[in-house]
């Protein structure tokens, strides 16, 4: 678990972001094991955003809570240990359809994940931005724009793909300079560098992440600019109001007037 606000401020040599408000983590394994004492009391968190779409296995012992949730949906929230727990899947049905379209009939015996890994982290991220716009925008509208959301932690799988993307979108929206985002991402790369890979596909994808490193940040920013006119227009076209965008900036920036 890493304090992004403190990291960005250290890199910027100034109080750019409101500290102790924004954290990133790999898999938190079992929320029920850590419980309120860790997340609510120790880290003072109000919200956990989990990009692990299959959340029940690592939240054993919380069936009474998750009975109120809809695990088949791509995004939702419920209350857990006095926290707001939000799950979001960036791999929607549209994403799966897009991947399948790249498989010729003769190659469909191969794992779909091989196609994803072959795309590499940059183009795979473009696919996610195109097909998960609804889920991403719902997160910004319904969760990130509310003052009781923060402090917030974004977590997910150990490769840090989805939580890094959501964090990047947040930082771009509030106007953090690319240089600081790229340098901060270097700390995430160091974290995933030690991740154990389960197969060659995962190993190749991890190597691709390490090789693209800072290029991934600039490539995503450029894609948003060229395809949507920037992150703000991407969110607005997906249904996020200007009021919600303004609220996010106001809460996360030390001085919102600078955005």
UniProtKB/TrEMBL annotation:
Listed GO MF terms: phosphoprotein phosphatase activity
InterPro entries for the chain: Prot-tyrosine_phosphatase-like, Tyr/Ser_Pase_IphP-type
Name of the molecule in the record: Uncharacterized protein
